[in-house]
Amino acid sequence: MKDNEEKLFSLETKRHAIKRSDLLKDLIAFKNYIGKDKASAAGYKKWKDARYSKDSITRQFGSWEKACKEAGMLPQKIKKYSEEELIKHLEKVWRWRGQRVTQQDLKDYNSEFDTTINHDS
Fold first, then answer.
1. Is residue 9 a contact partner of residue 43, using CB atoms and an 8 Å limit?
2. Predicted local distance difference test score (pLDDT) of residue 41
3. Contact, 114 vs 43, CB < 8 A?
4. Of 1, 9, 5, 65, which Cα lies nearest the Cα of 38?
5. Of the spans 4-13, 32-41, 87-96, 105-114, which averages the highest pLDDT?
6. Positive or negative CA dihedral for 92, 93, 97, 102?
7. Are 70 and 99 part of one and the same domain?
8. How far apart are CA 79 and CA 101, in angstroms?
């Protein structure tokens, strides 16, 4: 193996870390773009100028809610859902998909319809 390839495929090489300040700048730009203080992760994902993934944001801040708070926004998410709300949502996704629901179906539905109930709920 060439020296460059050894570095490329080395497990010892650290990944490039995203700076918290860069994530925060992007979230503030998103807040300014949407023009309101309530933001959803699905909305951020759809934003054409988003520079980072929701996963990168939650890894850095601990949760989407904490990231929103630092950026001066409120998360557009209800933390606890009733059993009835969860069943109704699952039924909507099932009907939309036309078959038994997978985790990916929940993600796709949330992305398309800007909802926030996921498999963790």
1. no
2. 87
3. yes
4. 65
5. 87-96
6. negative
7. no
8. 22
- 49 and 28 share a domain? yes
pTM, rounded to two decimals: 0.56
C-alpha distances out from residue 95 to 76, 91, 99, 114, 119, Å: 24, 6, 7, 17, 17
Q: How many domains does the chain have?
A: 2
Q: What are residue 14's phi and psi, to 5 degrees? A: -75, 145
Token representation of residue 33: 């773009």
28 is a domain residue: yes
> 34 lies in which domain range?
18-75
Structure tokens at 83: 């059993």
Q: Give the burial class of 23: count Cβ atoms within 10 A of its Cβ; 0-12 exposed, 13-18 middle, 19 or more buried.
A: buried
pLDDT tens-digit map of 58-88: 889 988 889 999 999 988 765 678 899 999 9
DSSP per-residue codes, 33-101: HHTSSEE-HHHHHH-TT--S-HHHHHHHHSSHHHHHHHTT-EES--S---HHHHHHHHHHHHHHHTS--
